[in-house]
C-alpha cells in the first residue's frame, strides 16, 4: 500500500511538471523579440498582411502557437525555424511581451 501511495504521488508530480507553463516576463520578452520584430513589427503590430499581428493577442494563445511550431504540430516553414532555439521560458516571455502590447481596437 505504501508503495502505491508513493507511486501515485510521483505520478502527480510528473504530470504537474508536464503541464507547467512558465510565467512569462514581458520585459524579458521584449529583450528577446529583436528577431521577431523584422516580420511582426517591434510591438507586434505587423505592417504586412502576410505576417500576423501579435500585439494584444492572448498570451496563452501566443504561447500555445509557439509550442506547436516547436513540436511540429503546427507546421510553417518560416516559424518552425524561428522557434528552434527558444526554451519554454523564452516562449512564455515573448508571449507575455507581445500580448501586453496595444493591438487593434474593435470599432463598436
Ligand atoms: C521571417 C519572418 C518571421 C519572423 C522573423 C518571425 N515570424 Fe512569427 N510568423 C511569421 C509568419 C509568416 C507567420 C504565419 C505562419 C502560419 O501561417 O502559421 C507567423 C506566425 C507567428 C505566430 C502565430 C500567430 C497566430 O495568430 O496564430 C506567432 C505567435 C509568432 N509568429 C511569433 C513569433 C515570434 C515570437 C518570433 C520571434 C522569436 C517570430 N514569430 C519571428 C513570420 C515570422
TrEMBL record:
InterPro entries cross-referenced by the UniProt entry: Cyt_c-like_dom, Cyt_c-like_dom_sf, Cyt_C_IC, Cytochrome_c_Oxidase_Subunit
Pfam family, one: Cytochrom_C
Annotated ranges, domain Cytochrome c: 24-102
Record's signal peptide: 1-20
The keyword Transport is annotated on this UniProt entry: yes
Keywords, comma-separated and alphabetical: Electron transport, Heme, Iron, Metal-binding, Signal, Transport
The keyword RNA-binding appears for this protein: no
Alphabetized GO MF terms: electron transfer activity; heme binding; iron ion binding
PANTHER family for this protein: CBB3-TYPE CYTOCHROME C OXIDASE SUBUNIT FIXP, CYTOCHROME C4
Protein name in UniProt: Cytochrome c domain-containing protein
Species: Sulfuriferula plumbiphila
